[in-house]
Write a structure and sequence with these properties.
There is one protein chain. Helices cover about 75% and strands about 5% of the residues. It is mainly alpha-helical. It has three domains: about 35 residues; about 55 residues; about 50 residues. A hairpin with a 4-residue loop joins strand 1 and strand 2. The chain is flat. The protein starts with a helix and ends with a helix.
C-alpha cells in the first residue's frame, strides 16, 4: 500500500515539475511578446516624432526605382555592345546579355524599361481592383507623420514668437 502511495506521489511530483517547466517557458514567451510589443510601440512613436523613419520609406522606393533605371541603361549598353564588331564576346557573356535583354526590354512597347515591379498604388490582381498596395499605405502614413511633425514644430515656433513679442 505504501509503495502505491509512493508511486502516486512520484507521478504527481513529476507532473508538478513538468508544469513548473511549462510555466517558466510561458513566462519567457510572455516576456518576449511584451518586449516585441514595446519595440513596436517605440517604433510607432518614433515614426510620429522623428522625420528620418518617414523619409526612409520614400528613399527606399526612390533607390529601387533609380537602381532599376540604372540597370536598364546598363542592360541596353551591354546589348548594344553585342553588335560592336571590334569586340570579341564569349558565348557565356552573350547569353547573360540576352538574359538581361529579356528582363529589361519590353517587346510589346519596343523600348528598354525596368521590369514590372509590385504595384505601387493599387493591387490589380486582388478581388477588388481598388485595393491599396502596402507601399501606398506606408507612403501615406509617412506623409501624414511628416505633416504632424511639421505642424508640431510650427506650433512650437508660434509659441516662441508669441513669447518674444
Amino acid at each position: 500500500m505504501a509503495s502505491h502511495i509512493d508511486i502516486e506521489m512520484n507521478t504527481y511530483l513529476t507532473e508538478i515539475e513538468k508544469l513548473q517547466a511549462k510555466v517558466t517557458e510561458l513566462q519567457k514567451e510572455k516576456e518576449l511578446m511584451e518586449n516585441q510589443k514595446e519595440l513596436m510601440k517605440k517604433q510607432k512613436e518614433e515614426k510620429t516624432t522623428e522625420i528620418e523613419p518617414n523619409l526612409a520609406v520614400m528613399e527606399k522606393w526612390l533607390d529601387s526605382v533609380i537602381g532599376e533605371r540604372k540597370n536598364t541603361k546598363r542592360a541596353k549598353k551591354y546589348y548594344e555592345s553585342l553588335y560592336d564588331n571590334t569586340k570579341d564576346i564569349s558565348l557565356k557573356t552573350r547569353q547573360e546579355i540576352w538574359k538581361l535583354r529579356r528582363v529589361y526590354y519590353n517587346n510589346s512597347l519596343d523600348k528598354w524599361m525596368p521590369p514590372n515591379q509590385e504595384p505601387l498604388f493599387h493591387n490589380t490582381n486582388h478581388k477588388s481592383p481598388d485595393t491599396v498596395s502596402q507601399f501606398m499605405i506606408d507612403y501615406i502614413e509617412a506623409t501624414r507623420n511628416l505633416f504632424k511633425i511639421q505642424q508640431k514644430q510650427i506650433n512650437e515656433l508660434k509659441v516662441a514668437v508669441a513669447k518674444m513679442e
